[in-house]
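Action item from last week, closing it out:
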Amino acid sequence: MGKRVKKIGVNLLRIGICAAALWLVARGVTYYDHVNLADGAKIVGDVVSVSSDDLTFRQKSGETMVVPNDRVARDSGGLLKVDYGLRSAWRNSKGGLLMLALFIHFPVVFPQALRFQWLLRAQSIRLSYWESLKLSFAGNFLNFATPLGSHAGDAFKAYFASLHTDRKTEAVATVVLDRIIGLGTLLLTAALITLFASREGKLAVLQPYVLGLLGAAIVGLLLYFSPLVRWRHQLEAWSKRAPAFVHVLRIDKAARTLAAHRGVLLTAILLTAFLQVLALSAYIVVASATGIQAGTANYFEFLAYFYTGTLVQALPGPPQGLGTVELTYRYFFSPYGSPSQIICMALAIRVVVLICALPGLLVTLTGGYRPKQIVEIAGENSLATPAVQEPII
């Protein structure tokens, strides 16, 4: 009963965080455009066009009016203070740029599957690239399409990867290690970006938190791999009393085995960093498509903001950071677009990611994730897979 109450409490907390974040995000979001005039008044309706001299505006009543630009208030950057609503944000979204974002983001899964195949091979688990790709597609789809968030995709990937080998504990451990590499690379890059960011910018407030997380992660790794820490010997003693600890020892061995394959580990980290930059570049294209003032001049700044949003998404809380990610975007992108435009950008990013993961739906519906051949080897069932070429490292 205690575990059930605890689980209900955790779920209620996650729902509460999600609801509070969404409420804060929704503040300031409007359906129609709002033009702020220099005298403090506002006019509500739809912006038809903006020229260097004036602004053409259609009021809610249907009446069209032309407002000289000198009557419109300006922000600190000298731009006209026009808060675009949801109606204009969607209507003015550039379909060509959204398609470009899909084109940039979709290929991410292919090197991702290759990385997973390399990590499995480090554990002496032979899995063909095709099988790894199907598991990656299915895992990504379940990550983005289920209310459980990334837990569902990882659990699915771990279970069905284990069906391809008799080294099941190592297969499950590899999925966990794959996730740790992704989060670690994300944290390291975010920490470097915040470290070199201006102390007067919006990233400055995150510096102590991100650097603190990075420092804790480094200390944890040093302690884990330090020969001075003897906890592993204690686990060996416990495993003699409780068979369940044998699996803990095998997971520990899998982590140390991967660390010993320095070439594979370094290649996986570098590949992960490249994939993260590629995916977040697609986010920047989405931002431009939805009217956010994105360009080459602020590419690295926007990249830092999206890195931070992805880090927030990875933290414990609402599934896929629902609400908390949007709130993060509201904080960072407020100088570059209206609340409605930022919400449209956040929604469009989620749609792009989901569309890119849709092949995983086909994999899960057709059962393509199951092993194709099971042969008897030494009295045990094991998957026969074709040999694959070792990565050049």
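Closing note: Residues 168-196 form the longest helix (29 residues).
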